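User: Show me a protein chain along with its predicted structure.
Assistant: Here is one chain, sequence first, then structure tokens.
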Amino acid sequence: MNLRDALLASLATLPGTREFHLHVLVTSPRKHSALFPFAHPRPRSYLQDIVVLLSEQRSSDTPRVFVSAIEAAVYNIPISSCAVLYISKVDTTGQGIAPAPTANLLRALLSFYSDPESRPFATDHLWIHLFARAQGQYLFPNSADYEGKHPLSGVKLCAWWKRVFGDVAEEVKRRTNSKATIKLFYLLPGSSESEASHSLKFASISSAAAASASPQWTYGHPYSQSETPLPCPASEASQNLGHIIPSFEDDPKSRFMDEIAYTTEADGVKSPARKRPRKDSSRDEEVETVEKDSRRRGDGRGQGELDDVTPDEFWERMSFRQECIAGTLTGFFAMGVSCPLRKDPSRYEISPLAPQAGQVPSQMTKRIMSSLLTAHEFSTIGRCVRATGILEETIKGLCEGLATVDDTLPIISSSQGQSSSQAISDRPSTPQPETRPQTLAPPQTPPPRMQNGTRVMPDVSPNPFPEPVTTLETYNSHIYGSMHVDNPPLPHKSSAKTEDSAPQVTILTVRKKNKRT
């Protein structure tokens, strides 16, 4: 079962009569060096982008409208047999039938990569990371202006994510017959453990379900435990924050890590003064301090205070960051899954860079996401219908009519006033694989790059595998899928209150007291 089929199967139990149309884009692996930018040496990691777009149709006569979207990234680190799944953005339009299918999609996505049997690459451990921050919109521009969309508050969003992670942990336990070791961590910056537990329990929609939840949660960060290996292997002599905390795009942890790494006296910002060693200290301690300071000053990419800040101090200082305390409650969630794999030599012989069936070029997802975020809006149903039609036709057109996707193709914008069919009418109707070069270009020395006054050479070598060629067969077998759901609808809240169930009101009369004559 591929990812598309797993996500479609999760929608079968939703109440109501409706038809779902799903588009799943998973890019081919590519080399990535920014997951641990301050680790020495950097571990080799391979990145894949995941984009999930779900549209809904009330009946065969009504148009489709986007209801949910997910943007994620998965990193494969073969040297430690670990993988990292980062949920970047999740959004809804509020224009579908309640309840929204977003939770079902997320549970299916997390379970698909957590289960070693369905995971598309061979690793023994998986880490899932998420930063929960409530906003009106993430992936659907102007959808916050739609009156039917009701975004959750910060505390309710954190409680919602905690239930999703707990459901995934139970599902993985069931699939693996309790052979998987699962560790759940959460941290609400600025809140103690008792305050966080009380807030999330109070904000839970179903208190009975929250009380019966069996997964055991740890309030804190996962970087001090040793039961589940961390993705970046490091020796005791070189381990610092850069080896244990991964860096993701648009993540407050990454921005704080950059500040710590480049906080030095040479950059114009003076770090706290180091204490002098005592007179009776050994010479070995003084030599170690001098070597640490020289290593910090000599590294062109910057180390700053990464060697001196402990994980506990890092998270304590995160509680004072503006991104974490700016008027709403935020939360960091992490889940570690360790499960021994069945030693299948065929899975380990496959190169981590080899593209698999159904994967698309990374430029295709960039084009779709750029069009989604900059060329459409979802403030009304009419605009959502138009954007849904254009984007779905664009995805199909890219699979059917193009052999490659490059940056020179124009992005469809609302100001151009042209439909998706007009945009792809000049493209060839069949793929032309002969236009793709069959051999790699000769190696060349790229021009040097400057960073902090030091020349830095790129550490990413060319990919020996060509980009996958998307076809109509790829579209029908791996990208697009539909499902018709016909289940009893949810009972209306108003129907539960009838005249018979109305509370009876007893009118009391006041008896006058006779006055004495």
